[in-house]
Amino acid sequence: MFAETFNVVLVSTYLLFALFIRERAAVQITDLRVPERVAKGTPALLDCEYTLDADVEKGFVLKWYFDTSTLVYQWILGRKPDVFGMLKGQLDLDYSMSNETTEPNYRALYVRNASIVLSGNYSCVVSTYTSEDKQTKRMLVFELPENVSISQNLSNDFIPQGICTADRVFPLPKVTIFADKRKLDTSVVALNDYTYGDGSYSIKAVANISTDSFVDKISCEVYIAEGNYLTRVEKIYYPLVFASSAK
After folding, report:
1. Where does 25-183 have alpha helices with state H?
2. Shared fold status for 27-142 and 146-245
3. Strand order in the sheet with 182-183
4. Antiparallel, parallel or unpaired: β 186-192 and 201-208
5. Residue 15 has pLDDT above 50, yes or no
6. Tens of pLDDT, residues 183-223
7. CATH number of 27-142
8. Rounded distance, CA 11 to CA 5, Å?
9. ω into residue 145 within 30 of 0, thus cis?
């Protein structure tokens, strides 16, 4: 009697476990492809590849969220996708991951011209009536600086200074001012450039130049690790300019 009861419990447990596994596998994300870095103004493709059991297709919904909780895209199988919020007007809604022999598959986000405000975390959620899967990755849209320049000036205390400026850059770069090959202690001030309303920065970096040794050139190095970008500008240093300005 005990053996029969044990066998019934064992079989029931196995069937419940098998049903659970089947439901869990009804829909599953197999590959979430989100570019880590995208240059501003270039296209970007965010793709959410998944597997779906044929018998649960009617309940299938795919959603994209921005920064975890903001719904920006929804596609119900058999319909055209809906776009919300910040992605409105940003996507090619005719873009499909299917080929000519299959039904349209609108799982991917094809951004026509990436902008800085699209930087953030993107979550793809696929679900049916019985199961759900979710994955998240981050995308950064960077902008290379314009008008990088180096100049010299005197502080209010008549201390020689090197001044480096750059316009419309994102994210904040690392800025270093040099006296010949010697790195100077550089202070950076960054301001949001509201002229264009795109979240970019205008920066100004200042470094004091010691008069204890001869300086031939001053230079400025701007580095954006996320964009694999490095630029350097330089100019001849004129200490006599400071002397005449101080009079």
Report:
1. none
2. yes
3. 182-183, 174-179, 217-224, 229-236
4. antiparallel
5. no
6. 999 998 888 766 667 789 999 999 999 877 789 999 999 99
7. 2.60.40.10
8. 10
9. no
- 65-95 pLDDT, tens digit each: 999 889 999 999 889 999 999 999 999 999 9
pLDDT of residue 12: 47
Residues 149-178 pLDDT 10s: 999 999 888 889 999 999 999 999 999 999
Alpha-carbon 65 to chain mean position: 14
Q: For residue 135, which of 147, 125, 127 has the smallest C-alpha distance?
A: 125
> What pLDDT was estimated at residue 228?
85
Domain 146-245 in CATH 3.30.450.20? The answer is no
Domain spans of the chain, in order of start:
27-142, 146-245
The residues with which 45 forms a beta bridge, in sequence order, are 110
Nearest to 27 by CA among 65, 68, 55: 55
Q: What is the DSSP string of 161-219?
A: EEEEEEEEEBSPPEEEEEETTEE--EEEEEEE-TTTTSS-EEEEEEEE--SSS---EEE
The whole-angstrom separation of Cα 63 and Cα 8 is 42
pTM: 0.78
User: Which residue shows structure tokens 């779906």?
Assistant: 52
Using CB atoms within 10 Å of the CB of residue 81, give its burial: 0 to 12 exposed, 13 to 18 middle, 19+ buried.
Answer: buried
List, in sequence order, every beta strand (DSSP E) within 77-180. Answer: 82-83, 109-111, 120-127, 132-142, 146-154, 160-169, 174-179
Indicate the pairing of strand 37-39 with strand 132-142.
Answer: parallel
Q: Is the pLDDT of residue 246 over 50?
A: no
